[in-house]
Amino acid sequence: MENGKSPAIKSTNSKMASQELISKLENTIENIADFPIPGIQFKDISPIFLDPQLYEEVIEDLVAFSKGKIDAVCGIESRGYLFGIAIAVALQVPFILIRKKGKLPPPLVSEKYDLEYGSAEIETRKGQIKKGQRILIHDDLLATGGTTEAAAKLVKKQGAKVVQFSFLIGLKDLKGEERLKRFNAEIYHTLEY
Ligand code: AMP
Hints:
Elements: H1 19-28, E1 30-33, E2 41-44, H2 52-66, E3 72-76, H3 80-91, E4 95-100, E5 108-114, E6 119-125, E7 134-142, H4 146-156, E8 161-170, H5 176-180, E9 186-192
Parallel strand pairs: 3-4, 3-7, 7-8, 8-9
Antiparallel strand pairs: 1-2, 4-6, 5-6
Adenosine monophosphate binds near residues 43, 140, 141, 145 and 147.
């Protein structure tokens, strides 16, 4: 940091979801304690899909964040597909699947990353991400940011630029946003816990 000033990075975004939408989502998303392992507060988004109107409002909110700013959406397996494809269709841009190792046929581009115990790998089909494209990386929830960070590296190594990250939910205690700041992209979540 020069002159004690903050670096000029667009790490956050001034857009905010309406309080009405946030309240509806808070009343709909279920918190399940100690799932899948003790200590985790699992956010179950599946009740959103029982309410088509609420789903539509969520898509409108996420679309408003990305409108006019992106050339393609990369969705992270698997819950990143639930909203990601609808965002891409609304903006009439391509949707690219980022999948866990072993699910997509070759040719592939891969990225390894560390988990708390061991490591994992994510992949896209080679040629689907084009050089110079402005990419939105989307997932349902930002926790530690480990998977999203690996997704951003995977996009960058194909010559495209990560310009935005969006999530329905951000878990602020896990500091995922801190981890994504170095990509110098806008970050948005509809609601936060
Ligand atoms: P991370 O790489 O730690 O940011 O984890 C993000 C991924 O794990 C997302 O795709 C979520 O679907 C899932 N996830 C992590 N924590 C939770 C949680 N508390 N509730 C629901 N899903 C979660």
